Records
---
Amino acid sequence: MKTRQWLLNDHPRGRPLKDSDFRLVETEIADEPAPGRALAQVLWLGFDPAQKGWMENVADYVAPMALGDVMRGSGIVRVVKSNTPRLKEGALYAGLTGWTEWLETDGAGFEPVHPDLPPTAMLSVLGTTGLTAWCGLFKLGEPRPGDTVVVSGAAGATGSTVGQLAKVAGARAIGIAGGPEKCRWLVEEAGYDAAIDYKAEPVRARLKALCPGGIDVVFDNVGGAILNEMLGEIATGARVVICGGISRYETGTMPAGPENYFNLVFRRATMRGFIVLDWASEFPEIRRRLAGLVQDGRLAFRIDEQQGFEQAPATLMRLFSGANRGKQVLKLAD
Amino acid sequence: MKTRQWLLNDHPRGRPLKDSDFRLVETEIADEPAPGRALAQVLWLGFDPAQKGWMENVADYVAPMALGDVMRGSGIVRVVKSNTPRLKEGALYAGLTGWTEWLETDGAGFEPVHPDLPPTAMLSVLGTTGLTAWCGLFKLGEPRPGDTVVVSGAAGATGSTVGQLAKVAGARAIGIAGGPEKCRWLVEEAGYDAAIDYKAEPVRARLKALCPGGIDVVFDNVGGAILNEMLGEIATGARVVICGGISRYETGTMPAGPENYFNLVFRRATMRGFIVLDWASEFPEIRRRLAGLVQDGRLAFRIDEQQGFEQAPATLMRLFSGANRGKQVLKLAD
């Protein structure tokens, strides 16, 4: 049988993504999986800004991507034929599928979807997104009740989870996002105490007003000027969690480094980065807790679902233009 | 009797120091100290880049300095007349004297000089300089045997102490300094394993060559481009200690922030600032250990001694031009 695949066609280094970074091909795949393997159909793909870093090969915590490789990415599959006890026919699993419609896999790294939540939860709140929010916030940010947590890129899939987790932990959550619709959603749906629209409001002045005691935990998904403004308002002993840097991808040039880094001295503060995979051994337990919060109605998530395999590159680009509303996924099949 | 004093005459914000930032006055001081107080003569003043931050009032971890205040600074005094059991007549003490030739004090914050080391040791290796090196390195940097520690501003009073302490702890020490004389001194006298002359060598390439496994501990006294280069070469799990930022003072404009901060993510690394006064309760014990290392010949220090009270402003400026060789002090009297 045949499957379509998106291949890496160029390394988008130091510039935005473009259509010619990807190449659509059709390739042959066996109807009958080899012993110990299964044939699976991809139902959804999930998208993350880190994928651009993988394409650039700057992110050396993962294996390099060569030109001609199938685009790396997560997805949800339904197992159609299985020759391995790891994967049950008819069942749905989440894992690193790559950008393909069909794949043969031994099931390594694939997890069953949650029985009581929509399958796409495994690409968002129970996937790398939710795990990243949990680990970054609780292992590095360490919010205490009454702390003020400020999240940039707050309306993104990770950011909106961070704010809600901060609230669960008894902290105040302030989100920074672009545009009134995102800011309204943060406060009305995602439980943020306040939101700052960086496209319409002076970020520094709003931070001063909203965080009179300073920021105890910064959770940064953005970098650039917004990180710098947040660093300017940290409280003594603040924890600055560097999770992402989407501003690094927006333009052809690297954004300036944060001049206000020296406030780490005056505030005896800590700035840390992390790779969520370092805590992989804890993922089952963290996923169990995240699912519990969703089921208790304490953790909302929204999915931005686009349609059609041929839209994969355009769907990834939505992340960098800020077009997505919630976790970006692409539906390939029912 | 009369004493001369240097007063703060202008806040040197966002520009280098100049002569008119200081004003020399003569003022009256009682021959006989009040009950509970002592009259002391200042023998040496000690100088530190942080003093410019105090003058600017940007360093809010200390009380603000107003125009007309006596310049804040450390010194060594000899007690001439004492009406307090805290201070013995004829004995030498170190403390915050300010820029004055004589002062009356109740002795709060004054410590006796070490009986077996030169008095100026209390302004350098046993003073804030040595305590800063110890606390920054061991409380934040946490070097382990075999780690590679890179120090910027390595020929400065703090930097040269950091490298030697790293060696004592079993780590490799690489120093970055300006000019062949400083670099030679680092390797030949201060026990550094290697030195990089940033004025003559490509820092990034030399770091790559000297630290093939990456930098485990960055101890930064400089900021700007050198901090950025060091961040580009950190090892997984690195600790980046922000101690000072002398490049912030060199020019009228703030140096760019470190673009490579995002390497904290790829390297799961930590960048922290600190204020050494937070560990004041531990100073006696740390000072005891530092003195032991000096007496064992494991910790060298050098003093750059200028002469004459009227030279105080010019002596402070030596720190920012890189003219000083070792801890900058000024001798006022025998």
---
Amino acid sequence: MIDESILRSLVMPNDRKIVLLVADGLGGLPRDLDGRTELEAAAKPTLDKLAAHSACGLSVPAGPGITPGSGPAHLALFGYDPFRYQIGRGVMEALGIGLEVGTHDVAVRANFATMDRDGVVTDRRAGRITTERCAGLCAKLQREVPPLDGVEAFVMHASEHRFVVVFRGPGLDEHLADTDPQRDGARAVDPQPLFEEAERTAAVVRSFVAKANRVLAGEGPANTVLLRGFSALPHLPTFKDRYGLKAAAIAAYPMYRGLAQCVGMAVLPTGPSLEEQFETLRQHYKDFDFFYVHVKKTDTRGEDGNFNAKVQVINELDAALPALLKLEPDVLAVTGDHSTPALMKGHSWHPNPFLLHARTAQPGWTEEFTERSCALGTLGRFPATDAMPLLLAHAGKLAKFGA
Amino acid sequence: MIDESILRSLVMPNDRKIVLLVADGLGGLPRDLDGRTELEAAAKPTLDKLAAHSACGLSVPAGPGITPGSGPAHLALFGYDPFRYQIGRGVMEALGIGLEVGTHDVAVRANFATMDRDGVVTDRRAGRITTERCAGLCAKLQREVPPLDGVEAFVMHASEHRFVVVFRGPGLDEHLADTDPQRDGARAVDPQPLFEEAERTAAVVRSFVAKANRVLAGEGPANTVLLRGFSALPHLPTFKDRYGLKAAAIAAYPMYRGLAQCVGMAVLPTGPSLEEQFETLRQHYKDFDFFYVHVKKTDTRGEDGNFNAKVQVINELDAALPALLKLEPDVLAVTGDHSTPALMKGHSWHPNPFLLHARTAQPGWTEEFTERSCALGTLGRFPATDAMPLLLAHAGKLAKFGA
């Protein structure tokens, strides 16, 4: 990828509008039935027409054969080397369940677990208690564990025995070892700082665990907590710093709003439907020059392994798209962050179809918005980290390099 | 290429089978007659059908315009940066003629040469003596030069005046300057250590040269030896370390067996024909999860400049292939290590057709297994070092990166 400081030196802000529409997990694979991918099976006249008049290609999310999580896949699309800028597990989990993570907070993934009277962990998952039970216990911890030396602990359930804690207060540092012993029959590990800077945080966490144990005494299998993946928000250069962009995110799911915040985007309140998201775009169109719009359900249906439902989401996206096109953005890109083929019921490493519509875009042989047809486009196969420089260039926001 | 330590951290072994079939020097160029390449002129219905149902592309062996030797070309395909991991000339030559090179051995290329009575080299090639004569002299040296301070010297002829010496014994170090003065009319250079660690080795080599001179006195033009390219096996991470793979090589030629050994593959005994190689594969199919199968003759016929003979080798490969396909490997790749166009009578930098067959492979527009048709595949044009991460991913052996 292009050197960050060189790119930054070429940035030349103007008021042209860029819209990056990310259909999560968009890329797919042929199903056995008729050899067509989800995109090939979908009815999407608007996207197809757009693709035929766009520069198209295939974007590789993280590297050959590398299946990225949502964090690295989005960072790459936002132009950040996903191997250099890694977002910790605790932070990703917190963002995923909608817990806010501030710049100085420390987030950690947690399990309810069972320990015997000698303090030995007998079940790291507390018998996989239900999500409802987990939610009840989290509420109890939130209510009954007092602030710890000026630090507040925010506790939120995830699924089954899993939950997340975000510590908020002055002087926190994320460099702590896991307390989870990773096997039954061992004691939980006392919170240990990895560096001197984290000593105070270790004391806070130790006090949290002790108090949690007191609150949970008598709660049956879920009588202790195990913590792993202490992490803080990574220090990412913002879209403003890096690209000179006033950027906004329109995303219905917490994790994507959190990711956008990590790169300094304003996060606009919006509704869960495509129509509401595009209406939010319309309302704020004058206020920003870059919009990241996130469509979640392509990924969800892919993860479900439901080929037809994923096709249906693409059909709906296509039907809703005219509301966005009516704004006539100077540069519009439509792509995915990674593939989620229904065939695989999960993320994959396959490249995503990528469409870039702009006055300066060079159309190729692409006739429809599919993986195979985008392979015939003028953008070729390129790393997702190249997308942002391309969008900036097509918006006239990059100066000439050299004389 | 993807960072080695990141890739290693994602490896997730399972029992799925990967077969990498390398037809050496596979890629070709159009002949004048009808503008068809060797692959285009071949009758290969099985490969063509396979390609149409595979992810295809073009793999670039070492870099734009860079013609690799067999060593770097194979290392790249095995996922090792061929510029970082270089295998010395002496070692490659030894492997090429079937001389075993152990982990602590030092190998060197040698010439029989002529020197006058003042010790001046008058012909660095001893009048290009025949290979038979060379073999006889090598046998004589092997017989008559005694062990040198506990170090054995293994002497084996190559072609004409060329031969190889492998020194085996404790405390050897390959950092020695060439003794070959590189021009007639100069004296042979006394063996010199490049670093202190190689002082003992220099003494051993000095003693070898003195004894060889004594043995060769009176042997006419071939009365001395010149040595160049002292080298030891490179310290390569193994396939097990790097990819978690239990890997085996099925190759009839010594050099390729040696290369496979360098990356820690088990080398299976096999016969020279394709049928025997595929039968070896069948017999050991349960014992390994990665197989490298090497077909030599595509390269040999290309080096000969014999277009029709190379076509014939491809025809034979296609006819033998069903025996391999019957094993139904989870992931099968067919490609070359480098191109050897008959037109050029030698290795070239041109990319190789690459076919990847797996349930998760995305077919593109490729209709037959040729250079031109693979250019229309979904893998695009990619560095050969990307092949291994792709094979691992398609075999489900790589975990997701990040959350």
